[in-house]
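# step 3/5: fold
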Amino acid sequence: MARWHSLERPDYSIFTEAAHVYRYPARFPASPERVWESLASDESVKAWGMGVQSLRWTSPRPFGVGTTREVVLPLRAMSLREEFFRWDEGRGYSFFVREANRPGLRVFAENYEIEPDGDGTLFTWTIALEPRGVLSPAVKLLGPVNRAGFGQLVRAGRKYFARHP
């Protein structure tokens, strides 16, 4: 049985004040309604391809603040239990990792924003994290690697919506 490690609950300021903030604005060739439909679907970003091995909502619909889900990252690198602390229907949401099956993180949160952009959507994904203990220097050192790795999700989303507008 996995040992779960609790993380701290942030507020929205985490997306500007965290030690490590990664922000990815991207234009998707789909309507905001279509992008939202995908984000709130049973598969959510897992459908886009890269970045998520499995995803399971653990709260019933309709989703909103307090909704929970479990996510497993590729190669079972980490399993996460997430809780949503912002839910703006059709415009975006924010969640934080409540628990992870690996130690080393104090806070981990993600923010998704959707805005109309002509005949497409401006999608902005922000990741904020605060490592704990011995992981702190490694996260700082690997900043460029993390930035490139996290960016895979946005690139995969752009390709997904080009194929599934």
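# step 4/5: annotate
Residues 11 and 44 are 23 Å apart (CA to CA).
# step 5/5: archive (pending)
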